[in-house]
């Protein structure tokens, strides 16, 4: 059994997040991805006596670790740790009595602890059960996926979510292996993937199973569907002038966020040749970070997992903008 104190997740671009997100110390903020509590604890330290922070996670270990981290702050502001999936952010708001908030943060990265803890089944570099669930109380596991999906479905998933060029070969190898026995461990799966890859691909710097494990993790946790749900619901949950900050770690997530923010800022669907807009769709706000923010060189050296991160921020129009 893992201890909360062992849960480690270095908060990505912490200073940049605080600068973009916390504009009102007496405001109400939601951290949609509590994790180890790094971002949440830093936000809490910024809040005054009238401030409020709600921190959400669906991982039991993260909830325990985050709770301990926030308790250590000794904050003046009100705060609460809540079990939930950010895909259901509107339901979480109802449960805690929130209407609209001053800011929301979502860090889509898998925590260092989750990746490194063999028992969670995310790691391709060490033996562990094929699980990969963020919420271990429900849903299909990675073992369910690799042992039950058809070869065509596996190939499509690996190609789509892992952007893996050898998806077909890997899917075929998985199906062939499971004819003898089910895949039950991460090391078994990683070995099957490695043997399916052509020799040239094994000379890449990254582990040959990295992209496939990412694809399976996304499928198990329905990560992209959760991102789409959050992006659809969040704007209505922001106060005028409120901000939504999101940290992504791969192109699939980042494309969804970038496109959603662009549409919120410019929803017009009229053909370009039209001299004026006739569709009637009005912008809801502005994109604060046009190209997104990336970690500086020092952070990338200290925390290699920050190298693929990109921070984007959207600000809802306030009353003055809408008059």
Total DSSP E strands = 7
The shape is globular
Regarding quaternary structure, what we see is single chain
What value does the Rg take, in angstroms?
21 Å
Unreliable segments of 5+ consecutive residues = 1-5
Mean pLDDT over all positions: 92
Order of the strands making up the biggest sheet: 3-2-1-4-5-7-6
- Count of DSSP H/I helices: 13
CA(first)-CA(last) distance: 56 Å
Structural class: alpha/beta
Order of helical and strand elements = HEHEHEHEHHHHHHHEHEHE
User: Which percent band covers the strand fraction?
Assistant: 5-15%
Can you give the helix content as a percent range? 25-40%
Structure write-up:
The structure is a single chain. The chain has about 325 residues and is of the alpha/beta class. It is built from 13 helices and seven strands. Strands 3-2-1-4-5-7-6 form a seven-stranded mixed β-sheet, sandwiched between helices. Helix 3 (about 60-70) links the parallel strand 2 (about 50-55) and strand 3.
List the helices and strands and how they pair.
Layout: H1 14-21, E1 28-31, H2 38-46, E2 52-57, H3 60-71, E3 78-83, H4 89-96, E4 101-107, H5 112-116, H6 142-148, H7 151-162, H8 167-178, H9 186-196, H10 210-221, H11 223-233, E5 238-248, H12 251-265, E6 285-287, H13 297-302, E7 310-316
Parallel strand pairs: 1-2, 1-4, 2-3, 4-5
Antiparallel strand pairs: 5-7, 6-7
Helix pairs in contact: 7-8, 7-10, 8-9, 11-12
